[in-house]
Design goal:
119 residues, mainly beta, Jelly Rolls, 51% strand, globular
């Protein structure tokens, strides 16, 4: 197994690329410039890490596609679980979402986050 150690920078590594995780209809402002700066992806796609940025949006997710741990760098995220419990997250806070979770994902201020996903 190859070991890799690297620093994930909050402003990325200058290699951002468009990301299309959020459907256009879900953006709540005219801005739709969602980006990802990937720092690592396992060959089999089972683990991914990097920096993701997205303008305000809101979408219902029936089944979250991955396990994800994220740390909010800037912005605000409101998550509402399937039972209607709502929690707001901001800079410096760590969020974990389990694969298969039902939730509403609502970015209320442009969000930048570190992420690590596993399938």
């Amino acid at each position: 197994m190859t070991e890799r150690v690297f620093k994930i920078l909050p402003d990325g590594d200058g290699e951002s690329r468009p990301s299309r995780l959020i459907p256009k209809a879900c953006f709540t402002t005219e801005a739709t410039d969602e980006t990802t700066q990937s720092f690592y992806e396992a060959e089999d796609g089972s683990v991914s890490t990097g920096v993701w940025e997205c303008p305000p949006c809101k979408m219902d997710i029936d089944s979250y596609p991955v396990n994800e741990m994220m740390t909010i760098i800037c912005g605000a995220l409101v998550l509402t679980n399937g039972e209607g419990v709502q929690e707001t997250f901001g800079p410096g806070e760590v969020v974990y979402v389990s694969k298969g979770s039902t939730l509403t994902w609502h970015i209320t201020e442009r969000l930048r986050k570190y992420y690590m996903t596993s399938s």
